[in-house]
Design goal:
274 residues; mainly beta; ten-stranded antiparallel β-sheet; seven-stranded antiparallel β-sheet; 45% strand
Length: 274
């Protein structure tokens, strides 16, 4: 087991690198243990799921405050995870894949938060920036109505993908004590799976934030060339959204022009539209 304690949070991973505790302001954010990552490999119609728990070996090192976890699997697959600490936690992952399969997607880091949402008697909510925005207080009801759909081809247009129906690649869980923000701070704005669903007989909720390598899927070296960040906040959903907004404003896409103030390519009435 490895542990990290700061003034604002504490983190514990087991010998396989899975999150077993994440605490801020007295709030435990791990509702169920999940493997740290999951990978889907594909060769035409054949697929293989690989989880961090199935690694033949895991080597964990620490240098200058940064943790490195090196996973070795059968069939010439290796994965390297780095974890750095600032005002929160920054996660990065890279793969060396010589299996003959392409990498379709990678879920990382995997965390399941407690299902102590409002409809179960708690004070928790989950924020998903899908369409106009979703603030979930009852994960069971969400599953019965507009539930989780696994992204696959061809898309039905309702899957939790960014950039698509999901406007921003982050999720947040919070209650009256504290909140956890999980966001992909990707300058390239690549394809992501962003959604949530219940696990462990609805005792916990998996916050899924995965990436699709796309054109690099069949190459040997595959990496998420950006950090997936965890930040802690207090307040409501606006506090979580502000974390992503501040990052976005500091890393604007090339050619991005603020609409009302500077974009002269649209008519004047456009800025007054409700």
């Amino acid at each position: 087991m490895i542990r990290k304690n700061t003034d604002s949070f504490s983190l514990a991973l087991d010998e396989k690198g899975a999150l077993i505790s994440l605490v801020s302001r007295g709030k435990e954010f791990v509702g169920a243990r999940l493997p740290l990552f999951e990978i889907l490999l594909r060769d035409g119609g054949r697929t293989r799921h690989v989880e961090s728990d199935s690694a033949e070996s895991v080597c964990i090192n620490e240098k200058n405050g940064v943790w490195t976890l090196e996973y070795t699997f059968k069939d010439s697959l290796s994965v390297t995870v780095t974890i750095a600490f600032s005002e929160g936690i920054d996660w990065r992952i890279s793969l060396e894949n010589r299996t003959g399969y392409a990498v379709e997607w990678v879920n990382f880091p995997q965390i399941a938060v407690p299902n102590d949402l409002i409809r179960t008697g708690g004070s928790g909510r989950i924020l998903l920036n899908m369409n106009e925005g979703m603030l979930c207080e009852d994960v069971a009801m969400r599953q019965k109505t507009f539930g989780y759909i696994e992204p696959e081809y061809p898309s039905e247009g309702l899957m939790g993908l960014f950039p698509a129906v999901v406007e921003s690649p982050f999720l947040a869980y919070y209650d009256n004590a504290c909140g956890l923000y999980l966001g992909a701070h990707d300058l390239a704005r690549g394809l992501k799976a962003v959604d949530f669903y219940p696990v462990e007989e609805e005792k916990a909720v998996f916050l899924r934030l995965g990436f699709y390598p796309g054109e690099f899927a069949g190459t040997v070296s595959v990496q998420a060339d950006y950090p997936t960040v965890m930040r802690f906040f207090t307040g409501s959903w606006e506090s979580a959204a502000e974390i992503y907004r501040d990052w976005f404003n500091a890393h604007l896409p090339e050619g991005f022009v603020p609409l009302a103030a500077e974009n002269t390519g649209v008519p004047e009435w456009y800025a007054d539209s409700p």
